[in-house]
């Protein structure tokens, strides 16, 4: 996967996602932010939370150019499995997951872990490849005829399915966005000639973008205290008690 993001289509995807993430995370506030995977992308560089953690399945160079230098505290964590995150429950305000679910053996369990470590009203930002796009058509429909345009993943998950999973875990989807409408080409010169597809695709066939970005917030279902039933019955009986009428002449 790392090698793919060094290719022309990979660089194209990274550029689009970086621009979108900068816009989304800039307005999300809290104390602790976490990026899972994809060290080629600085998903939190525009965020202003003071404590940032990068968690990946391999070690990274602490002096790498992409690491955000303006944060107060930056930590890295080696995570062998995103299905078991080494963080305390309800300890993170923001989690960004660029292309994590589609490369996980159990993506639903990854979302369960995200729900566990997120604070109530915390945010999760997810990016992924859209299987219902021209890129997905080449990847699956033209398999055996043309070489794949996307990296080999466990499964490419459609956006409606992720929304259903989030809803089951008490997340509320805030907004979603599709992007990367250029033709699925492996050479930079051919991709450069298709720049006109960006505004056209965003206007006329937005759900056919090669990549999507989704933001959701963790909601905590409230509880309503209900008083004892006998108090309600007593109050109703007192309110409906008949008035006594005195005999005439007394």
TrEMBL record:
Residues 75-126 form the Methyltransferase type domain. InterPro entries: Methyltransf_11, SAM-dependent_MTases_sf. The keyword Transferase applies. It holds the Pfam family Methyltransf_11. GO terms for molecular function: S-adenosylmethionine-dependent methyltransferase activity. Keywords: Methyltransferase, Transferase. This is SAM-dependent methyltransferase. The lineage of its organism: Bacteria, Pseudomonadati, Pseudomonadota, Betaproteobacteria, Burkholderiales.
């Amino acid at each position: 996967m790392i090698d793919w993001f060094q290719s022309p289509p990979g660089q194209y995807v990274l550029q689009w996602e970086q621009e979108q993430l900068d816009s989304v995370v800039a307005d999300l506030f809290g104390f602790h932010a976490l990026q899972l995977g994809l060290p080629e992308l600085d998903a939190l560089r525009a965020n202003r939370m003071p404590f940032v953690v990068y968690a990946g399945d391999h070690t990274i160079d602490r002096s790498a150019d992409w690491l955000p230098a303006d944060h107060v505290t930056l930590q890295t964590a080696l995570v062998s499995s995103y299905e078991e995150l080494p963080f305390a429950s309800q300890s993170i305000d923001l989690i960004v997951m660029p292309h994590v679910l589609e490369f996980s053996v159990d993506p639903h369990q990854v979302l369960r872990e995200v729900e566990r470590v997120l604070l109530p009203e915390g945010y999760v930002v997810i990016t992924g490849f859209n299987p219902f796009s021209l890129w997905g058509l080449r990847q699956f429909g033209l398999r055996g005829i043309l070489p794949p345009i996307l990296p080999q993943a466990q499964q490419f998950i459609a956006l409606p399915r992720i929304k259903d999973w989030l809803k089951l875990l008490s997340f509320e989807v805030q907004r979603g966005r599709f992007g990367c409408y250029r033709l699925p080409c492996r050479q930079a010169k051919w991709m450069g000639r298709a720049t006109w597809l960006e505004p056209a695709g965003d206007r006329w066939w937005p759900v056919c973008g090669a990549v999507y970005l989704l933001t959701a917030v963790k909601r905590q279902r409230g509880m309503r205290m209900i008083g004892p039933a006998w108090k309600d019955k007593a109050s109703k009986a007192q309110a409906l008690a008949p008035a006594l009428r005195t005999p005439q002449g007394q």
